[in-house]
Amino acid sequence: MADRPFTSDSFYQFAAEKKLMGSRCQTCGTLYCPPKPICIKCHSDKMEWVELKGKGKIAAFSVIPYGPMPFVKEGYGRGNPHCSGIVELEEGPRIAAQIIGVDVAHPEQIKIGTTVTLDFIERGSWHFVEDVAKVKKTYPVFKVQ
Ligand SMILES: [Zn+2]
C-alpha cells in the first residue's frame, strides 16, 4: 500500500479494492481525499496513505438532467437525472461524488447535512475511448440510508 504514488490512478486502484483512500501530510497532519502528492498548506511531500471510514454528510448537491457519456450509457439523462454532490467526510476532507438513494424527482426533499455512507459503483471510464463501456473503473459513491 505504502509504495503507491499519491495519484488519482492509485486512488482508483484502491477504489477497485473497495477502499476509500486519502493522503495525510506527515509534517502538518492535513488530510486530503482524493489524495495529493504535496501538501498545499505546508508544501511537504512527506505523505502517507490513510483509509477513510466512508461516512459523511451531504455538504452540497445538484440534481442534473444530463451526464457524461458513462452516465448516459447507464440510462441517466433527461427524464432520469442523477444527483451529484459534495460529501464532507467525518475525517474532514470533502469529496465530489454521485449521491444515490435520494429521490431525484423531488430534489427539494434532499437535505444538506443528511448522513451518507460509502458505496462503490463500476462504470465506464470518463476518458475518451472508442467504446467507453469496455474500460471500467470503480468510483466511490455515497448513499442515503
Ligand atoms: Zn502539510
Structure commentary:
By secondary structure, the protein is mainly beta. It folds into two domains: 8-51, no CATH class; 55-144, no CATH class. 10% of the residues lie in helices and 39% in strands. It has helices spanning 8-16, 69-73, and strands at residues 21-25, 31-32, 47-51, 55-64, 82-89, 94-100, 115-124, 136-144. The strands form two sheets. The protein has a five-stranded mixed barrel. A three-stranded antiparallel beta sheet has the order 2-1-3. A hairpin with a 4-residue loop joins strand 5 and strand 6 (94-100). The longest helix is centred in the N-terminal third of the chain and has 9 residues, at 8-16. Residues 25, 27-28, 30, 39, 41-42, 44 line the site of zinc ion.
List strands and helices in order, with pairings.
Elements: H1 8-16, E1 21-25, E2 31-32, E3 47-51, E4 55-64, H2 69-73, E5 82-89, E6 94-100, E7 115-124, E8 136-144
Parallel strand pairs: 6-8
Antiparallel strand pairs: 1-2, 1-3, 4-5, 4-7, 5-6, 7-8
Zinc ion (ZN) binds next to loops.
Strand order within the widest sheet?
4-5-6-8-7
Q: What is the distance, rounded to the nearest whole angstrom, between the alpha carbons of the first and last residues?
A: 31 Å
Rg (C-alpha, Å): 16 Å
Query: Count the helices. How many?
Result: 2
Identify the overall geometry: globular
How much beta, percentage-wise? Answer: 35-45%
Tell me the helix content. Answer: under 10%
Number of strands: 8
Question: What are the segments in which pLDDT stays under 50 over at least 5 consecutive residues?
Answer: none
Structural class: mainly beta
List each distinct ligand once. zinc ion
